[in-house]
Amino acid sequence: MSDKLTTDLARAKGVGSAKSGAKHWLYQRVTAIILAICSVWLIFFIKCIIGRDISHFVAILQKPYNIAIIGILVIVSFYHSMLGMNVVIEDYISCIKFRIGLIIVLQIFCITTIAFFVVALFHTQLM
Known about the structure:
- The chain has about 130 residues and is mostly helical.
- It has a single domain (about 25-125), classed as 3 helical TM bundles of succinate and fumarate reductases, CATH 1.20.1300.
- It is about 85% helix and about 0% strand.
- It has helices spanning about 1-5, 10, 20-50, 55-60, 65-90, 95-125.
- α5 (about 65-90) runs antiparallel to α6.
- The longest helix has about 30 residues, at about 95-125.
- The protein is elongated.
């Protein structure tokens, strides 16, 4: 009965944000800027590789700065996609158990893919 006597503002005060949206928003913007910078490098890298044989590609790929930039590109792109998919899942999946399950599967997928890529990158460096 006391709920009927309160104003809309008083009812909405306890239903505010979870205080994590600003950090999430900032992480998405920072990763987007890093991806834009790495994408410019990737375009020039692909342009230099076109028309060359595979041994030339591996020789260029084994340079430490190329490995570092490709590693940063893949890690940041998977993290950026994980952030975006988290938002989509949280916004559009109404069943809480299914939502939590999807988020856990998404995070496991992204982490294992990043781990396998880093191992493959170091394997390429050692060859």
